[in-house]
Amino acid sequence: MLRFMYDASGHRTGKLLINSTTGRIDRGDLYWRDAQGNALVVEQYRSQQEEGEHPYVAMKDLETIEYSIYGSSRLGIKKDTVTETYQADELSTRGTRQYELANHLGNVMVTVGDYKQADTADEDLYASLVLTAQDYYPFGMQMPGRKYILEGNSSLNGYRYSFNGKEDDSEVAGQQDYGVRLYDSRLGRFKSADPIIVYGKQYPELSPYQFASNTPVQAIDLDGLERYNYTRKLDDQGNVILELQSVEDIYENVFDPHIGKDGVRIWRKVKNPKQVHRVWQQGTTIIIRHHYGPVRVYYDEHVDYATYEAAQKSKDEDFKSTSEDNQMIFVNALNGAADEAMQNSYSRGISGGRATVNPKAKLAVAAKGVSNIGFKELQALVRADSKAMDAFFKSKGSVVPSKEALLNYKELATRMLNGTGGAYQRVTEAAAKLHTERIEMINDALKSLK
User: Fold this and answer.
1) Which residues are registered as beta bridge partners of 66?
2) What is the pLDDT, as a whole number, of residue 82?
3) Which of the four pLDDT bands, split at 50, 70 and 90, describes residue 404?
4) CA distance linking residue 19 with residue 3, whole number of Å
5) Burial 330-364 (b: 16+ CB within 10 A, else e)
6) pTM of the entire structure?
């Protein structure tokens, strides 16, 4: 008989194998985990329970049997016992580590040892020592006749993890620990109902015992409660391809008045209250106007979906108004306001409180023509005539400045409207309207001067 122990977060902390005849604990595994629930160390004990002694008192003589090896994710395990094939070499103990090779779903397909062996075909090369290998049916049951264990290494029979990278309960055929629930890979179903479907009243189209929405070839089922982050791409036929990048816990504050350690509390933080499939759209680019010049910004945007099926049916239209888009609109509006303020300063002639005249700019106009001079030179000419142009616009065209002042301002406004000739790109709608109106006034004034 098996009995399990769990912490407050639903992570397994102990597994007890109890003799159904005597009621004694024959063996027990204890798990030490980090804050995210990842197993770090496994300790094991075998009961020395005496007559009349409580089984939990008999948990003595603990022995550390396994350490997990991590990089960005689990890489393998290290055992204190050395495998029978290799004991040690001159530099360090070998044969204690077992590294896992997994596919895109996290299924452990092969494990290799940490001992290098000479390649029989080439003396200068070394080959990895394959310790175990196995194949799976789509829902996780291991294929008969498709399992390999290195001969003479019986201690490797129990590599702890297999399908989806989850721990096997070898005492029960096909059973795996998924944290919140136990899974039977022979049936392709969980042994208990999904709390989201039963209590959350979500996803009525799915059985509460289903695994990975019945799509085990491309999807995985972790605890059934976290947020899954995917990147979205389109193949040559325009079909959506989702690539799972990470899984993270969700924490939300729910209204739950209660008495806590520091008094009455209104809200309670709940871990993983729902399932979210967050899809990220890659390669979004925007050019933002800035008074130093155009800035090219790359950013990704996301949309949340309640089910994997909905995420797989996502459309480009879903990403037209995301939170990232709104942030970019806000940033662009701020830059646009600053840019318009600077444009108005050209009209008012603000440059240290006085209009400035650049003799080089006037020489450039005489030599090249106003349409061929640089943007900064053109700005200097507009500043020089800012008072006259300001009076022109305020009088609605009644006070007409010189023809040169009109042509200079028209050229500047045209460049800023079109984003050409060194001008800033992507002017705001308000600025575009202002430029268009002033260019029309200038054209009317130029006709009267002919």
Assistant:
1) 42, 79
2) 46
3) confident
4) 11
5) eebeebbeebbeebeebbebeeeeebeeeeebbeb
6) 0.49
